[in-house]
Amino acid sequence: MSDILTAHQSQYYAWQLTRKAASDSVESFAATLVDAQVDLNPHQVDAAVFACQNPLSRGVILADEVGLGKTIEAGLVISQRWAERKRKILIITPANLRKQWHQELIDKFGLQGMILESKSYNVLCKQGMAQPFMQNIPIICSYQFAKTKADDLKRIDWDLVVMDEAHRLRNVYKTNNVIGKTLKEALTHVHSKILLTATPLQNSLLELYGLVSMIDDRVFGDIDSFRSQFSGAGSKNSFESLRARLSAVCQRTLRRQVQPYVAYTARRAIVQEFTPSQQEQRLSELVAEYLRRPNLKALPEGQRQLISLVLWKLLASSSRAIAGALGTMAERLQKLQNQDQAEDLASTLDEDYESLDETVEEWEEETKPEKFDKEEQAAIAAEIQELRHFKELADTIQDDAKGKALLEALNIAFEKLEELGAKQKAIIFTESKRTQEYLLSLLSQSSYAGEGGNNIVLFNGTNSDAKAQKIYKAWIKRHEGSDKITGSKTADTRAALVEHFKEHGTIMIATEAGSEGINLQFCSLVINYDLPWNPQRIEQRIGRCHRYGQKHDVVVVNFVDRSNEADRRVYELLEQKFQLFNGVFGASDEVLGAIGSGVDIERRIAEIYRNCRHPDEIQKGFEGLQQELSNEINERMLQARQNLLENFDEEVQSKLNIRAKDSQDARSRFEKLLMSITATELNGYAQFEGNGFTLQKLPEGISNQSLTAAELQSQPIQPIQLGRYELPRQQEDAHLYRISHPLAQWALGRAKNRDCPKAKLIFDYSSYESKISTLEPYIGKSGYILAKLVNVTALNNEEQHLVLSAITQDGEILEADDPEKLLKLPATSEALKIPIAESMQRLLKDDNQHCQDHLLTIINQRNLGYFDQEVQKLEEWADDLKLGLEQQIKDIDQEIKETRRTAATAATLDEKLGWQKKQRELESKRTKMRKELFDRQDDIELQRNALIEQLEGQLEQKVEEQELFIIEWEIV
Fold first, then answer.
1. Does a structural domain hold residue 964?
2. Which residues pair with 250 in a beta bridge?
3. Among 260, 279, 311, which residue terminates a domain?
4. Do 293 and 233 sit in the same domain of this protein?
5. Of all residues in the chain, what percent are helix, strand and coil, respectively (each to 5)?
6. Pairing mode, if any, of strands 782-794 and 797-808?
C-alpha cells in the first residue's frame, strides 16, 4: 500500500481502524493492542477476547496461574471499554495493590485512574461532590472501602467492575462472609464483571459456586441444589456437566502452557545471619516485655493488635525505627494526659511504618474512644517515662549489627551477580522510613556510594527529599516536549527515580512503596532488609525484578537474627511453606490463594510474638500456624481444580499459536494503516521516514488545547508538539504515536468526515509490493466500487461492518475479497468524466445488498449461538432450583426414617411418644411441601420463560447503513 492514499482510500481505512468489530474477534481489540505499551502474550489476548465475546454474559473469572499477567488481561478489557466510551469503571483490589493498579493503567494503557479511599473520598465530599464514585475515569478502591461504601456502588450503573484477588470472595455463600455478601448485593445490577484469581478452587467445590454467583446468580440454582449435584462423590456425568457449565464463565491458563512465549528465570536465595549487640538485645527484651502487658495506656483498646504488630516489625527493623515510634507514642500519651487533642495513633505512626494505612484497610479491629480517669493518671505518667527510657536506650545504640551484615551481604550478592552476568544493581527493601534514612547514611560512607553519593537513590511514598526532587527536575528537563511526562508529579517523580537507578544507580533503598507499580527487570538483586510477615508483600517485592523481561536469575537476600527464635521461625515459614525465595515460579499460588489476606498471617504471627516467650512455646506456636496452613491446602481439591478448570497443554498451545498469529497480524495491519492515513492527512505538514514521522508544523484549524480537551479528557496525554513521532517507539526522545493520540484522532476524524464525491481511481498494480493473483485478470479493465458502512445492533451490542461491492464495465461481479484487495493498490484520483449509469448503480446496490444479507445471516447465526447458550443456562438454572425443592423433600424423607427408627428403639414410653410426635410433624411438613412443590416449580418456569422472552426481544437485529462512496476504477 502506498504511503499516500486517495481521499476515498483514506476514508475507507479510517473507518476500518475505528469501527466497532464483533466482540468475539481479535479484530475488535486491534486498536487497543496497538495502543497498549506492553509486549502482549497470546494467552493475555485470548483471555481478553474470552471476557468480551458473549454480549449476553454478565462476566467471567480469569483464573490464570500466578505471574501470567491477569492485570494486563483486565487492562485490555478496561481499555476496550474506554475506547467504546463506556467509562464508568470500578476496580476493587486488596489495599496493597491499589497503587500498582494505578501505575499499570498509566504505564501500559495510558489511562489515568483515581484511588478512592477515606481521605480522598471525604475531600471530594467537602468540595461538594455528592457521589465521589461517579467519575468518568477508572476508580480504584480496596475491598474494605468498597464494603463501607456499598450504598454508593448500588447507585451507579457501572460499565465494568474488575475484582482482583477475587478468591477472597469465594465463601460468599456462607452467612459470615460479610464483605462478599455486601459486594454481591451492591453489584447485582452490574452487567459486566471480571473476577481475577489464581485460585478459584481451594477447599470445596462450593467455592466455585460462590465465585460464579458473584458474577451471575443464574448459572447455578441455589446452594442446596449445587451441593446435592456436585459436592458429593458424584457421577462422571455430573462432573462433566459442571465442567461444561464452568467453561462458559471461567478460563485458566498455566505457566507451563505459555513457556514457548515467556522465558522464565529462577530465584536464588541467600540467608545473611547476624547477632545483635548486647545493647540491641537488651532493648528488644524491654520493648517485647512492654508489648506483652495486658493494659497499656499508649495503645488504644481498638488498635492494640494493629499497633503491637507495627512495633514488633519496627523493633526488628532498626534501633532508629523503634526509637522514632517510641518517641511518637510518648509525645501522644503526654498530650492525652494533658487532655490536649491527640491524633489517631495509627495516623501518627504512618510516618514510621509507611504501609500502615494499607494494613488498616484490611484490619477489622474497631477503634474506641480513649478516656482516662484520675486513678489512671499515675499509670500513664509511669508509662510515658518508660517509653522515653526505651527511646533513650535506642538512641544510644551506635553499632547496628544488622547494618554491618548488610555490607557483608552486598559483597556476597554482587559476586553472585557477576557469576550470573547480571548488572551490579540492588534494591534494598525496608518497612521503615527511619531505617531507610539510616541505610542511606550507612551506605553513603561505603564504596557503593559513588561520587557525591550518586549511585544511591531513595524511593518511598512521598519522594520529597532534596535529591529526589533534583532527579525529578533533571528528568523533566531531559524529557521536555516528550510524552514520557504525564503531568502527574507523583507519577513522573517515580519514573524519574527508576530511570536514574537504571542509568546511574547501583543501589535503590525503597520502602514498601517501591514494591508497587514499578518495573525493575534491569535489576537482579532483591534485599529484604526487613522481612514482611505478609507473604503477598514479599511476592510483590521480588516481583518488581523477577518478572516478564528479566534476563537473569534473581538473587534474594534475607536477614535472620540468630538470637531471636521467633525471627528464625518466621523465615522458615516463609521459605519452606510459601516457597518465596527459590525456584522458577516463586510463591506457590496454592498457598498464596489459600491465605486470602496476608494480613491474617501477620496477625497470627504477632499473636505468637506476644504470647510466646520461650523457644518451646515459640516452636509450638509456629507448628500450629503451619498446621493451619496445611489444612488450607487440600490435595483432593487441587485435583478437582485441574480436572474442572484446566485444558490439555496441546489444546491450549494450539489455540495460543492461532491467537498469537491473529493478534500480531491485526496489530501489524492496524499500525501500517494508521501510518498510511497519517501520511495522507499530514501531507505537507510532516516528513515521513522509517517507522515514524517528523511533524514540522501544525495543520491549520487545529490547536493543542482543543485536541487534548476534546477526545481524551482527564488522560495524561501531552499536547501535540512538533518533532519526531514513532509507532512503535524506538528512539527514547521520540513521541509515542498511537491510535488514541490526539493527532491520530484528528487524522482519523478528518478522513472519516471528508465528503468523497464520485471520482475515478486509477490503480497501479505494477507498483504494489506483492502479487495478488485474483486481480491480475482485471489489469487493463475498469468498473465501479460501492462502499457502505453497516451498523448492526442486537443483544444489546453494536458492531460495524464495511461492505464493498465491485463490478466491471461488463457487469461482472468481483469475488467477495477482491474489492478490498483492489483498494490496497497504489492509486491516483481524477474527476469522473462520464456519470455512472443507473443500471450499473442498481447492479452495485443489488450486489451490496446481497453481501449485507449474507453478513446479517452470519451475525444472526453467531448471536443465536449466544442466545442458545443463555437459554441453556436458564434451563439448567430452572432445573437446579426444581432439583433443590425435590432434594428438600428427600431430606425430610430421610429424617422421617431416622425418627421412626429412633422411636421404635426408645427406652421409655415418654421418649417413644415424643419421637412419634416429631415424626407426625415431619410428615405433615412433607405433605405441605409436596403440595407446594408444583406451584413453586410453575413459578420457576414462569421466571425462566419471562427471561427467555426478554432475550428473544434482544435478538432482533436493528440495521442502519451509510453510503461512504461510489467510484469508478481502472487497473493499469
1. yes
2. 61
3. 260
4. no
5. 55, 15, 30
6. antiparallel
- Burial class (CB within 10 angstroms; exposed 0-12, middle 13-18, buried 19+) of 329: buried
Q: What CATH number is given to the structural domain containing 160?
A: 3.40.50.10810
**Beta-ladder partners of 559:** 272
Task: Report the amino acid identity of residue 144.
Answer: Q
In this structure, the answer to whether residues 211 and 92 fall within a common structural domain is yes
Give the C-alpha separation, 278 to 281, whole Å: 5
User: Rg of the chain over CA atoms, in angstroms?
Assistant: 33
Question: Long-range pairs for 274-277 at CB < 8 Å and ≥24 separation?
Answer: 274/401, 274/402, 274/404, 274/405, 274/559, 274/560, 274/561, 274/562, 275/401, 275/561, 275/562, 275/563, 276/401, 276/402, 276/561, 276/563, 277/397, 277/399, 277/401
Which residue, of 260, 276, 311, is where some domain finishes?
Answer: 260
| CA dihedral sign of residues 275, 277, 281, 283 | negative
Element (H, E) at 310: helix 304-317
> What's the pLDDT at 490?
80
SS (H, E, C) 578-645: CCCCCECCCCCHHHHHHHCCHHHHHHHHHHHHHHCCCHHHHHHHHHHHHHHHHHHCCHHHHHHHHHHH
DSSP code of 683?
A: B
Question: Could you count the other beta carbons within 10 Å of the beta carbon of residue 334?
Answer: 16
519 part of a folded domain: no
Q: Residue 339's CB: how many other CB atoms inside 10 A? A: 8
- Residue 301: which domain range? 265-407+416-426+543-579+587-636
Q: So what's the pLDDT on residue 224?
A: 83
Distances (CA, A) of 540 to 22, 74, 216, 318, 594: 37, 18, 31, 22, 17
Residue 723 pairs in a beta bridge with 695
Instruction: Residue 715: count other Cβ atoms within 10 Å of its Cβ.
Output: 18
Which residues, given as ranges, of the chain have pLDDT below 50?
1-2, 704-717
Would you state the pLDDT for residue 537?
82
Chain CA centroid to CA 448, Å = 37
Cβ within 8 Å of residue 87, ≥6 positions away = 81, 136, 137, 159
- The answer to whether the CB of 577 falls within 8 A of the CB of 292 is no
Angle at CA 899, nearest 5°, toward 897 and 900?
65
Residue 792 lies in a domain: yes
pLDDT, residue 301, reads 75
CB-CB neighbours of 244 under 10 Å: 11
Same-domain check for residues 228 and 274: no
Domain membership of residue 50 (yes or no) is yes
For the four alpha carbons of 70, 75, 80 and 85, in that order, the dihedral sign comes to positive
Instruction: Indicate if 939 and 834 belong to the same structural domain.
Output: yes
Distance set, CA 334 to CA 293, 300, 311, 339 (Å)? 20, 14, 19, 9
Tell me the H-state helices in 479-564. Answer: 489-503, 535-543
Number of compact structural domains in the chain: 3
Residue 125 sits in the same domain as residue 51? yes
Same domain? 180 vs 290:
no
Q: Which residues pair with 271 in a beta bridge?
A: 558
Strands (E), 94-154: 114-115, 139-142
pLDDT in tens, 286-339: 998 988 888 888 888 777 888 888 888 898 899 999 998 898 888 888 887 777
Same domain for 800 and 905, yes or no, is yes
Cβ contacts of 945 within 8 Å, gap of 6 or more: none
Is 214 found in the same domain as 269?
no
Taking alpha carbons only, the member of 223, 150, 228, 242 closest to residue 190 is 150
- pLDDT tens digits along 409-454: 999 999 999 999 999 999 999 999 999 999 999 999 999 988 888 8
d(C-alpha 205, C-alpha 829), whole Å: 66
- What DSSP element (H or E) covers 31? helix 30-35
